[in-house]
Amino acid sequence: MKVVFDFGGVVFRWRPEVLMRQCLPTRVQSREDATLWAARFFQHDAGDWGEFDRGAVDADELVERVARRTGLSREEVQRVVDAVPDELEPIAPTLALIGRIKEAGHRLYFLSNMPAPYAAELRRRHRFLEWFDDGVFSSEVRLIKPDPSIFQTALQRFRAQPRDCVFLDDHPRNVEVARELGWQAVHFVDAAQAALALEDLGVLRTPRAS
What we know:
The protein is an alpha/beta fold and 210 residues long. The protein has eleven helices and five strands, in the order E-H-H-H-H-H-H-E-H-E-H-H-E-H-E-H. Helix 7 links the parallel strand 2 and strand 3. This is HAD family phosphatase.
């Protein structure tokens, strides 16, 4: 079986509301402010940020676009953009889950919406990415989830059939599209829940009680 991981929110921490509080303290005074600014800034992976994910705009152009659209200063936008790599910290329970999957003899892949600068930074910082046989970053193929084309591109890249892939993602729409295309897919909430789902699919064995 080929197990395919999303990255942000699954393998790596992704807390946009926390990022807003840290980077825009004068504008974000409450949890509600953080939620509104996160949605406005990142546009739920659409708009300007979606084009950044797609590799259609670089970081400098992104900063200009977001500043014009939101009314934030260029310095404020740049602060958020620069802070993202430090937010993308590995999630320890997910790494343990990946280890179990690898030990069970399955092959590991990733399929992630990720702007080019962050993709390069993840590869530079994290040696455990060598556990993955291959992967697709959106910015490298100029496609983003949930576009079905990126799933087809991944299948070609991984030399796989949909039925042979299990996909884990924290965004329900991405999971729905994968299933519509014939993939097995798990809506990832946390590593413990995902492990149970993978046991149900036969990817992992239920640990024996001691």
